[in-house]
Amino acid sequence: MNYRHAYHAGAFADVLKHAVLVHVLDHMARKATPFFVLDSHAGAGRYDLAGPEARRTGEAEAGIMRLLAASNVPEALVPYLDAVRRFQNAGPVYPGSPKLARMRLRARDRMVAIELLDEDKVALSRAFAGDPVVDIRRMDGFAALKSLLPPAARRGLVLVDPAFEATDEFERLAGALKAAWRRWPTGTYIVWYPIKDEAEVAAFHAALLAAGPPKILRAELRVQPAGRPGLGACGVLVANPPFTLEAMLAEALPYLARVLGREGVGGFRLDWLRAEGTEPVSAPAARRIPESSRPRPRGARARTRG
Fold first, then answer.
1. Which of residues 304 and 195 earns the better pLDDT score?
2. From the candidates 118, 161, 197, 271, which is the catalytic residue?
3. Helix/strand/coil (H/E/C) assignment for every residue in the chain
4. Which residues form the domain of 155?
């Protein structure tokens, strides 16, 4: 693996993924009972946005830094942005998913953060040294979905955010998720994925529909016209989402598409890949994210319990 998230920290993809993460964890923390978090591809924990990696790509400038400077931010994004701002005292720093998650955890909650890359695992261990709530482990993230589930806690969240460097990453991800859902069908799962090949993404969705949980919410964001170099679109699937998440994303996605869109282009999709008690709203075929910020009708509505 030669993927280094330091080049991409704070990009539009992190904004979407981490806004969802913060919202789901805030919802879980409303109940007194403890919950468990598994971050299967945790990274280094924090990233210097003034460092050479971030400056080389400029993705943070076009992502989180642009969002932090924007006006009329919707309420749906305030908890996420407030969390990011708490790391800005010593300069432009972006918190990775384990840092954002830890801010929401209480003394009785537990988190296991998995990182395979040696250098990032060392940085992660230093970032959480002496923290009794967080367990850092070096292992394959997909293997962790099998060996660490189900947890002792009845409630919990699994964040799956692979590097997507291997050519079979979507296949491995689908297989790992199917196995995880069989072991722990009641957990909430946040799954991030890049959108480069629409047909490949559609096949991935179809594979999950064949064996996935009854409730899967899909949110996708495009920030540049299709066909441009680099990553211009990504998505998040949330299995067993809290009932509040759809409304939060309905408010946040049009704003993100407008503020983070490039070349006058910003698009999004929000629908149910599967809603409990209904047929899947999306056939397993390629569908392009609309390249406009106009709201798109959502699929069948479904209430869930977190």
1. 195
2. 161
3. CCCCHHHCCCCHHHHHHHHHHHHHHHHHCCCCCCEEEEECCCCCCEEECCCHHHHHHCHHHHCHHHHHHCCCCCHHHHHHHHHHHCCCCCCCEEECHHHHHHCCCCCCCEEEEECCCHHHHHHHHHHCCCCCCEEEECCCHHHHHHHCCCCCCCEEEEEECCCCCCCCHHHHHHHHHHHHHHHCCCCEEEEEEECCCHHHHHHHHHHHHHHCCCCEEEEEEECCCCCCCCCCEEEEEEECCCCCHHHHHHHHHHHHHHHHCECCECEEEEEEEECCCCCCCCCCCCCCCCCCCCCCCCCCCCCCCC
4. 5-189+197-212
Identify the pLDDT of residue 212.
Answer: 77
Mean pLDDT lowest among 92-96, 105-109, 197-201, 273-277: 273-277
> Could you tell me the CATH number of the domain that includes residue 160?
3.40.50.150
161 is an active site residue: yes
Domain count, the chain: 1
259 in a domain, yes or no? no
Q: Is 208 a domain residue? A: yes
Whether 227 is in a domain gets the answer no
Is the pLDDT assigned to residue 157 strictly greater than 60?
yes
- Residue 231 resides in a domain: no
In this model, does residue 143 exceed pLDDT 60?
yes
